[in-house]
Amino acid sequence: MPIRVPAPVLLLVLLAVSSCQTTGTTPTPPAGSPVPPAGIRLSPADAEAIGRKIWKNECNGTVEGLTSWNVGEDFPSLGIGHFIWYVPGRPGPFQESFPQLVAYMKEREVAMPRWLAEARGCPWSSRDEFLAQRNEGKLRELREFLANTVPVQTEFIVRRLENALPAMKRASADGERQRLEQNFYRVAETGTGVYALIDYVNFKGEGVKPEERYQGQGWGLRDVLLEMKDTDGGQAAANEFSEAAKRVLLRRIANSPPDRGETRWRAGWMNRCESYKHGI
Fold this sequence. Notes:
Layout: E1 9-11, H1 18-23, E2 40-42, H2 44-59, E3 67-68, E4 77-78, E5 83-84, H3 98-107, H4 114-118, H5 127-132, H6 137-147, H7 150-170, H8 174-187, H9 191-204, H10 221-227, H11 235-255, H12 266-274
Antiparallel strand pairs: 1-2, 3-4, 4-5
Helix pairs in contact: 2-7, 7-9, 10-11, 11-12
């Protein structure tokens, strides 16, 4: 299924800072950081490739994988980005993103099943119930809907990165913000780095929620950027981002509650992070 994203897809990563929104000027990067371009442009072909890569990363590129509920988890993961949807009254520590996707689709006036538009939380109360109804009614309809809206899901993931930098800065201490911004700019200098940023923020979030911590240590994009060692920009920055992401996720696994069994994801997570050196 071809993914067609309106051209050009413009990541206003560097223009999304609040000062820019009020004054209409591009924010000045911290001293010593690379001078940012006016924006980071993705060609339609690159946007399509990134959407397909994320779909493969999360769902093995299959329609069946668009509706999943992993063993040991209290929520389903839906769409090409495995967006989390919590059962009403049972919030968890991870950032819930499926309702945000639905809201974005409504904003884009995407036609959707009425029950989905009106839902106030995941309608399946358990994994057993979810699996029992996998090929019936709402779940079958949801899977078909998600398979037919891959381009919009890709747009949603791209927009999430647009909003990530200002959110991460707000969640960081004064002494961290310059390093955070410097590393963000450096990674974003190449297409390989842009893919890494887009994929990781969808994969593990911005890292701004206090609840997204094990033993006080997080694993979001903010944590990876602050974990990076000093490096030049370009491919060197993408390589170091990849290694920093591995270190952060290995720390998460080590800190995780034993009953979550997160060691089962180690190989897959490491392979995904390694792909950040090679892009799309």
